[in-house]
Amino acid sequence: xxxxxxxxxxGTRNERYLKGKLPLVTAINKLEPExxxxxxxxxxxxxxxxKERIAKGESLEKLLPEVFALTREASVRALNMRHFxxxxxxxxxxxxxxxxxxxxxxGKTLVATLPVVLNALSGxxxxxxxxxDYLAKRDAEWMGKLYNFLGLSVGVVVHGLTDAERQQAYGSxxxxxxxxxxxxxxxxxxxxxxxxxxxQRELNFAIVDEVDSILIDEARTPLIxxxxxxxxxxxxxxxDTIIPRLKDKEHYTxxxxxxxxxxxxxxxxxxxxxxxxxNLFDAQNITLQHHVLQALKAHKVFKRDVDYIVQNGExxxxxxxxxxxxxxxxxxxxxxxxxxxxEHVKVEAxxxxxxxxxxxxxxxxxxxxxxxxxxxxxxxVEFQQIYGLEVVxxxxxxxxxxxxxxxxxxxxxxxxxxxxxxxxxILHEKGQPVLVGTISIExxxxxxxxLKKKNIPHNILNAKHHAQEAEIVAEAGQKGKVTIATNMAxxxxxxxxxxxxxxxxxxxxxxxxRHESRRIDNQLRGRSGRQGDPGESRFFLxxxxxxMRIFGSERIMGIMESLGLKDGESIEHRLISRAIENxxxxxxxxxxxxxxxxxxxDTVMNQQREVxxxxxxxxxxxxxxxxxxxxxxxxxxxxxYADFPTHMEKASPEEKERCRQALAEAINFQRVWHREELPSxxxxxxxxxxxxxxxxxxxxxxxxxxxxxxILEELDRSWKEHLFNMDHLRDGIGLRGYGQRDPxxxxxxxxxxxxxxLIGRIRExxxxxxxxxxxxxxxxxxxxxxxxxxxxxxxxxNSLFKHSEPSQSVSYSSPQTVENDMSSxxxxxxxxxxxxxxxxxxxxxxxxxxxxxxxxxxxxGKDK
Length: 864
What we know:
This protein is an alpha/beta fold. The protein has four domains: 2-221 and 361-393, Rossmann fold (3-Layer(aba) Sandwich), CATH 3.40.50.300; 230-349, Alpha-Beta Complex (Pre-protein croslinking domain of SecA), CATH 3.90.1440.10; 403-572, Rossmann fold (3-Layer(aba) Sandwich); 573-642 and 653-771, Helical scaffold and wing domains of SecA (Orthogonal Bundle). It is 50% helix and 12% strand. A hairpin with a 6-residue loop joins β10 and β11. It is globular. The N and C termini lie far apart (90 Å). It is a peripheral membrane protein.
């Protein structure tokens, strides 16, 4: 009650915020005559003046009225579009690092130009992130006319660009692209070896278009770069043959809410009999058990033309929120392979994670983040908790006149589809355009078949027919048009009403099923009623719909039975609408928990990722790596000597020998230490320094490149192994709950222990490598080639020198080879020293000239 009184007296928080921005709008409008008086050539000059003022320390907020006014006038001249006052408010909201909720058709694309231009003045780059490549290219070209008029450069990042093209795009003042491209470029940059190969700049300011789709819907799927693992795929096909023999309820159960499947006790016994194993849950059968459960899930939970399609001999994932094919993306943990076996297409090799990040953690790295969408209010709590983003609802330019009618509910799907076809037929004969929304390809094609039988012409838009998406959606408002669309529904493309349609009631939105998220339903409704246009919307439901069947049908069925409804009759009642909304809220809460859980686990990984990536970047761009190497050596030796006896002179011969071997393995100390007793820790550090000085002298100008290579190579190899270990830890961490321990806390604790071990291992291995590396100078190219041919593993040479890219700044003019003579990888090169130019040019397999009868490399050559 108290809160109600406060809102009545002072208005809502949203209303108070908007009221507080009105003076800014007034200030911008007062500057309009001044901007109208400028010549076209003056606009880039003004931008340069603003850039200089920013460089001198003036704040963006102080410049906001002038820049917004200049941008609005530039838009009038370049695009023939003038920002409304409510669009100015939207721009102010975006610049403040908030989410602007604006209705469909209110011109979000134009609104974004205001904060984009303002923030581009800093010279640090602005990213505008869209949901697909088409919109990225369209908006970059469309709004690029405005930016170019102001003298600002525009780039676009889409699939298929080279690194050079990406560097140019990211180097522009303003860069358009998709969330996937930005995220994967970040991961790829952290796998590069040279600064010249990096494509992204520092993450400065981003505006996320359709922010709910990107930061909420897609946040359940992390970005993963992976490589093929060395495992056979034959097991998937073998297991696939037994799944059809399992019987529902008797051998397995399905949890549709959790989208999972499990074997019953009878099912376990039956599978053990089929596979001829004694205990499926024995530790030695853990992989077999995993294959069985994933195959069961592929057959009984995941549906073709709903969760995925088969296209050109490949299983392609369907985005559950937009109905869009996600080419190049694969289900993890062997599920994709199980689906390939189910559909009898080629089973690709399993992948091992090389780099990964969630969208939540990627977008939280931007210094300033904002977003815009037509539907954000239902997820306002999540935006605030996860991203620290407040949602501000922007009023419409004209009043909303669309009629949203109550849902109609039928007993069965067949009754529902009959009613839908009748409704479409009535609307088509009337001439009123209708956009039909479905939640799956299967339903869209079923409805299409029914309309064909009635000879009703229509367009169908789904993941199988998406090539002409924008054109189909743009024409959906023409008189008599019938358009069937999955949830993609052409987001970002306006549906303009054709001649005579206003009088017929505008665009009719017909939903064939409620989505599990209210926001997705609101997006569909939002396709109609733009800029004050008339429109109508209605959802047709049945008790057999997935949402109703899983989450709310029992109560609703009771209501319908009490009313004595007959076959073919429908019901409209606020109690049922409320029950449906409650079901959707439960699903939304469940999905929020999934995303929050994913974030909790990835936050552990993110802290580790930041440390590793920061170390990588420091190594990559550092001109002098000696400090880092000596720090590594000090830490490695500290751990090593902590395990040695306090008084070495009192240690047993066996203990001394153990210490000697450990130290020899760690720093190859015998290379320069010729005394019987072991060196102290300080003396060991001096030995490392001496060896590195020798390496620096031999490598000359290539020293930093050699050190950089070994550090980066070890970082990447160890990080890949760590990701593998963390994946396995997470897979089994849920079992800790049976021991009354919080799995998330256990994951944090054990993950931290694994990470500490990782850091120690990286430092030890880098020092181990660098104290064994040799630089060999050859006088003739022919001799260098002979040495390379005889090397057991020439990959280090090839990686470091032979395959260096033209853009690299380090030049290797002297013919050199880099060797790693660690006993574990190159046993023949232990204690080898670089050949001097005046020494005999003897090959590795030549007879030793001393007359011993041994090969040179194992005799005198060994000591050299």
